[in-house]
Amino acid sequence: MQEHKSVYICSIMTNTAFEQIAAIIKGRRTTKPASLNGEKVPDEQINQLLELANWAPTHGRTEPWYFYVYTGEGLKNFGKTHGDLYWEHTPEDRRKEETREKLTHNVDNASHIIVAVMKRGENPKIPALEEIAAASAAIENILLGAEALGIAVMWNTGGMTHHHALKEYLGLGHDDLVMGIFYIGYTDEEKREGKRHTEIGEKVRWYR
Ligand SMILES: Cc1cc2nc3c(=O)[nH]c(=O)nc-3n(C[C@H](O)[C@H](O)[C@H](O)COP(=O)(O)O)c2cc1C
């Protein structure tokens, strides 16, 4: 009887936990840097998000996720550097002043920026694809933690994200990758309604 009761209580708790995490997963929305309001997120909360990242699954325990956090003057400097790198590494006939301005000023209303990196480990048994997968899982942990704390984030891969010049600036190796630039802060805007083009049922095959 006692055992039966504990299984019952456990199943209620599991259901509640599922509902909570489902609400966070489905409620998470991308917030563009222009929609941030300039308010600061406490550094402690940024550390809490990074701690979640460190609990992502990792094949071969390579833990390939690394994060560069910018705030205050560091944030402004990153924005300027991003604009400058774009300007220096884009051919004259293609570069646009407005793009440089955008990359420089994207940081203006952000509280923090996190540049997420996949550092390629030395275990030859783990393919790069799996290191990218693990780093992506770490990033998703950050996004979900942010949603739970009411923090707005955008995963951005524009500008110089995939350019070797940013890798060099960050001191990364040839096989490392910048996974994205994350603009973090708060927003006063209403949350957008989430949309997905295809129902999950159309992406799944069951074999019974
Ligand atoms: C790998 C990756 C890169 C992304 N890069 C950009 C980007 O450069 N610019 C952008 O507007 N959104 C970017 N996004 C965010 C998507 O636009 C966003 O996730 C998508 O519109 C779905 O909206 P939701 O996140 O609110 O559900 C990126 C998302 C992922 C997963």
Secondary-structure element series: HHEHHEHEHE
Strand order across the largest sheet: 1-2-4-3
CATH fold naming of one domain: NADH Oxidase
Show unreliable segments: none
Would you identify the CATH H-level superfamily of one domain? NADH Oxidase
What is the CATH top level name of one domain?
Alpha Beta
Major β-sheet, in short? Answer: 4 strands, antiparallel
Helix % is 40-55%
Shape: globular
CATH architecture of one domain: 3-Layer(aba) Sandwich
Mean pLDDT: 94
Structure classification? alpha+beta
Number of strands: 4
Rg to the nearest angstrom? 20 Å
How many DSSP H or I helices? 6
| N→C terminal distance | 34 Å
Keyword list:
208 residues; alpha+beta; NADH Oxidase; 4-stranded antiparallel beta sheet; 4 strands; 44% helix; 13% strand; globular
Structure write-up:
This protein is an alpha+beta fold and 208 residues long. The chain has a domain at 29-69 and 109-188: NADH Oxidase. It is built from 6 helices and 4 strands. It has helices at 2-27, 43-53, 73-89, 97-105, 128-149, 164-170, and strands spanning 65-71, 112-118, 152-156, 177-185. The chain has a 4-stranded antiparallel sheet, sandwiched between helices. The model has no long low-confidence stretch (mean pLDDT 94).
Itemize the secondary structure elements and their pairings.
Layout lengths: L1 H26 L15 H11 L11 E7 L1 H17 L7 H9 L6 E7 L9 H22 L2 E5 L7 H7 L6 E9 L23
Antiparallel strand pairs: 1-2, 2-4, 3-4
Helix pairs in contact: 2-5, 3-4
The chain binds flavin mononucleotide (FMN).
